[in-house]
Amino acid sequence: MKKTLLTLILFSVFLAFPLSAQKKTEKSLSLESLFSSLSDFPVTSGNFIQTKTSPKLKRPLQSWGKFIFCEQGILWKTEKPFPSSTILTKSSITKILPDGSKNVTDGSSNPVFESVAQTVSSIFSGSKESLETFFTISDFKSTQNQWILTLTPKDANIALAIQKIELSGEVKENSSANFQSLNSMEIFQKEGESTKYSLKDKSFRQELTDDEKKLFQ
Q: What's the pTM value of the predicted model, to 2 decimals?
């Protein structure tokens, strides 16, 4: 249950925050502008590094792969150390194993899943208020070059698995716009455990390819 819940929260948080570019004239980044940029580029893809730490482990565990964030959901395609794919949509979680077999979990009867899925749908319209149904947004700081944000769960079920989530990103300037990007997310759990996602080589586009669309059907 905790692993499923954690996956759902990852789903909502990644979709909630801008991974796209936004034109801005201000020198510093506002919290509202983080949400308003989602519609600019509906599809974000790139590489990720996942790092898990725990007092029970002698050293952190790492995995690598590719990701896709889009309106239909999220694809995590782990390539190392063991290949697998996880596809998250608003109604289900699909795990694809190296032999091609699939394990599908239906979330329609899970009230937590349903609540988070509804929040995800609202967030795509740029609604900060939807995220605040489940999280308290605190410690937001920004400069000309970077931003950092902390989320703490309001829901008791979520709080059982997650203490807080820290998001950080950068703002890059070019000749016509400032580009806001989510670079990392770290999830702090009970007993000193944490999971950090570092996002690399991000690209932004308007649509999925035909093959990518099939993954979310």
A: 0.76
